[in-house]
């Protein structure tokens, strides 16, 4: 593994974004303090929390740097603050990690080991399990289907029997992404117009077009409290609908007639999802309508309720 002039491993800054969920962040950081990698720093970015998170986290972890954004910048804006700080401080790698995760002690060693032996890789993602079912997979790579605007997580809800233990190229997940410094220098930062949802996919697409690979690394493991950050929120439907349309039009363009057929397919898939999985179906359908409306009106950024 590459070492710097002082014989240290590459410097990794771990960016943990917090928004009104300090208890999850405490659990996440407690697990990070047990990792075996030798050269890392934890950076907390508080996204304008109003639950006392900043004061609690400063008191609990006085040795860590905490940046207060002052308002909710969404996932994209929040992690961009952390990435820019890390690059300024000389990070070789930046790890973006959801605060509702806990990690295996060697998870970062495994990611950096793979990154260091492959110059063509720009993003690396871990194998991710459900926190509530520790041997059941949430993410073992992913595929995006442009005709329906959906990302399908490989292996999701399947018990891990070693069937997804091969390193391979994939679509990324913002839940846990290790980024090379060189990648950020070439393609920039996350698309803040998206606010949240699909920003990881869009970032990965720009990385691929710039010649960088995204790799799934199964030997790096963590556990995710799936849905905790957006639990009870229908706003995710709005962001997913709006941002999926922008993503497919930008990166998978079609002639006009085919494009409108695809719009109907994507809206139909999201509507089916609401009807099957959501209790608040009327409100869910309203958020889908608002997402379509705002996409065509060019309204991006944070969702503003009517």
Amount of helix? 25-40%
Overall number of domains: 2
Structural Rg: 19 Å
Q: Under the CATH scheme, which class of the largest domain?
A: Alpha Beta
Percent strand equals 15-25%
Q: Report the principal-axis shape.
A: globular
Total number of helices: 9
Q: Would you tell me the overall average pLDDT?
A: 95
Biggest sheet architecture: 10 strands, mixed
The CATH topology of the largest domain turns out to be Spore Coat Polysaccharide Biosynthesis Protein SpsA, Chain A
* Extended strand count: 12
Task: Tell me the span between the first and last alpha carbons.
Answer: 53 Å
Annotated CATH architecture of the largest domain: Alpha-Beta Complex
What structural category characterises the helix and strand content?
alpha/beta
* Unreliable residue runs: none
Order of helices and strands: EHEHEHEEHEEEEEEHHEHHH
Report on this structure.
There is one protein chain. The protein is an alpha/beta fold and 306 residues long. Strands 1, 2, 3, 4, 5, 6, 7, 10, 11 and 12 form a ten-stranded mixed beta sheet that branches. The chain is 38% helix and 22% strand. α7 packs antiparallel against α8. The chain folds into two domains: 213 residues, Spore Coat Polysaccharide Biosynthesis Protein SpsA, Chain A; 62 residues, no CATH class. The model has no long low-confidence stretch (mean pLDDT 95). The protein is globular and about 60 Å long. A hairpin with a 4-residue loop joins β8 and β9.
């Amino acid at each position: 593994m590459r070492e710097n002039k002082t014989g240290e491993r590459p410097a990794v800054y771990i960016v943990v974004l917090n928004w009104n969920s300090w208890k999850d962040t405490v659990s996440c950081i407690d697990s990070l303090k047990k990792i075996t990698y030798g050269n890392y720093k934890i950076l907390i970015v508080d996204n304008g929390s109003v639950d006392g998170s900043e004061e609690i986290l400063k008191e609990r972890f006085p040795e860590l740097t905490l940046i207060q954004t002052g308002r909710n910048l969404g996932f994209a804006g929040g992690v961009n603050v952390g990435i820019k700080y890390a690059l300024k401080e000389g990070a070789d790698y930046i790890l973006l990690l959801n605060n509702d995760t806990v990690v295996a002690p060697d998870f970062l060693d495994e990611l950096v080991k793979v990154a260091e032996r492959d110059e063509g890789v720009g993003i690396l993602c871990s194998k991710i399990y459900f926190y509530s079912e520790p041997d059941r997979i949430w993410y073992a790579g992913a595929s995006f289907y442009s005709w329906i605007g959906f990302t399908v997580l490989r292996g999701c809800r399947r018990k891990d029997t070693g069937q997804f233990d091969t390193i391979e190229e994939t679509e990324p997940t913002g839940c846990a992404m290790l980024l090379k410094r060189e990648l950020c220098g070439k393609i920039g930062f996350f698309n803040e117009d998206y606010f949240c949802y699909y920003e990881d996919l869009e970032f990965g697409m720009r990385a691929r077009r710039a010649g960088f690979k995204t790799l799934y690394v199964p030997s790096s493991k963590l556990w995710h409290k799936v849905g905790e950050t957006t639990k009870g929120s229908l706003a995710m439907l709005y962001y997913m609908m709006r941002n999926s349309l922008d993503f497919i039009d930008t990166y998978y363009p079609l002639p006009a007639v085919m494009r409108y057929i695809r719009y109907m397919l994507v809206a139909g898939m999201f509507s089916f999802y609401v009807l099957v999985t959501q209790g608040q179906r009327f409100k869910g359908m309203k958020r889908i309508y608002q997402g379509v409306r705002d996409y065509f009106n060019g309204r991006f950024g944070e969702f503003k309720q009517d």
